[in-house]
Amino acid sequence: MSVSVLSSTRALGSISGILQVASLLCLVLLLLLKAAQLYLRRKWLLKALQQFPCPPSHWLLGHQQEFQNDQELQQLQKRVEKFPCACPRWLWGCEATFLVYDPDYMKIILGRSDPKVHDDCRFLAPWIGYGLLLLNGQTWFQHRRMLTPAFHYDILKPYVGIMANSVRVMLDKWEELISQDSHLEIFEHVSLMTLDTIMKCAFSQQGSIQTNRNSQSYLQAIGDMKKLTFSRVRSFFYQNDIIYGLTPEGRRNRWACQLAHQHTDRVIELRKVHLQEEGEMEEVRRKRHLDFLDILLFARMEDGSCLSGKDIRAEVDTFMFGGHDTTASGISWILYSLAVHPEHQHRCRKEIQSLLGDGTSITWDQLDQMPYTTMCIKEALRFYPPIPVIRRELSKPVTFPDGRSLPRGIKLSLSFYGLHHNPKVWPNPEVFDPSRFAPGSDLHSHAFLPFSGGPRNCIGKNFAMMELKVAVALTLLRFELAVDPFRVPIPVSKIVLSSKNGIHLQLRKLL
């Protein structure tokens, strides 16, 4: 009996050992196959990008040193000066993106229908879902056509008053704060104001949103997700969803997504409840033009079906983020630019005072009657484009005007920041010169792209420009702006252009 048991034990031990060896061999084989795959990918990229020189890169780490210490934008400007039109940037040994910062190159790429980079969509989808920003092909076209009426001029005109009221709430708050200290970090306040505006204009929300704790929690979640998503794109070890989900950053990302979704779900549910009240549904149906959220709730697709709850939330998540954060970036950097250049600030103020007087009201028609202020706004958007870069993946080969070409499958980074600081496009690009946008200026059609270009340009660009003008005009009537010499902002690209150390200004109330 004991001999039999001993024999069985030995046999099991022998089988277990064989299985361990087999498992180890399988693991080694998988690693070798993966290494071969990465090696072949690198060889293909080297061949595909050989026509375009770039700075020397490490065989494994690529150009990672450019991303350290938030020096990416400064390094980008060096590339733009040295390498005409475009150049590769290696993220790591087997992954590269093709940087574009030339208007002719931009025109060709933006005129095509290349999709968003798959990994970018995969990283962003848990946050904003597959709405207009991430969709491609026919589904994107259907959603774009469906939502375009939400930005019709007849819809936008009444928004001017809502925007002005939101700005005044912010400015009143600034008056109280500077009575204690004239130094103020403005980006957080501007973000609350633009969130207030988009929620009232596009989502029919009421109440004091700028003092609402839920709004502040939402903004914190958005800030966290921007940083986490941007860092994930740059990390080789965070590309796998399972591995990333197990990391502290992955858990933080998941928690921030939940907070953002709770906010947008609440917005959708409140509107549904309101529409179910007696008479409200029919009153909305009789409107010639519907607000953004009402379009989604009443939408019918080509097959007659309604949008799913998932699709509605994706569009609300997309526009809730895109409709406030990019505009907040634009307004903050414009005010900073005017603080840096008091001569232009003074001239803008004189123009606005002659048009608006004490600023008790501002109308749609007046927005087109401030030409110099508009020139300064555009020059600030050139200097500090709210979206510094977008990415595409070539769905078919492309040949550029200079004869160089790229094959299908190459990932492109269309750098609007690089384009706007390209000395071959903008002479003395680091000089703030609003006259670049004087009437009659001869600009390349794709030299200035603060709202992207082509068929996938920003659907809300007219809404955004309205809000920029309203915010700048009313702020200059109330305050004189100056820089804080001890806290100069450091621009960083985190999906939306922000500042590493905030945007601090000194404010003086005008009598």
Automatic annotation (TrEMBL):
Family: Belongs to the cytochrome P450 family.
Needed co-factor(s): heme
GO aspect biological process, one term: lipid metabolic process
A molecular-function term among this protein's GO annotations: iron ion binding
InterPro entries per record: Cyt_P450, Cyt_P450_CS, Cyt_P450_E_grp-I, Cyt_P450_sf, Cytochrome_P450_Monoox
Residues that, per the record, bind heme: 458
Species: Phyllostomus discolor
Gene Ontology, cellular component aspect: endoplasmic reticulum membrane
PROSITE patterns to which the protein is assigned, alphabetical: CYTOCHROME_P450
Keywords: Endoplasmic reticulum, Heme, Iron, Membrane, Metal-binding, Monooxygenase, Oxidoreductase, Transmembrane, Transmembrane helix
Protein name: Cytochrome P450 4A11-like isoform X2
Transmembrane domains' residue ranges: 12-33
Localization, UniProt: Endoplasmic reticulum membrane
Oxidoreductase is among the record's keywords: yes
Encoding gene (name): LOC114496696
Keyword Thylakoid in record: no
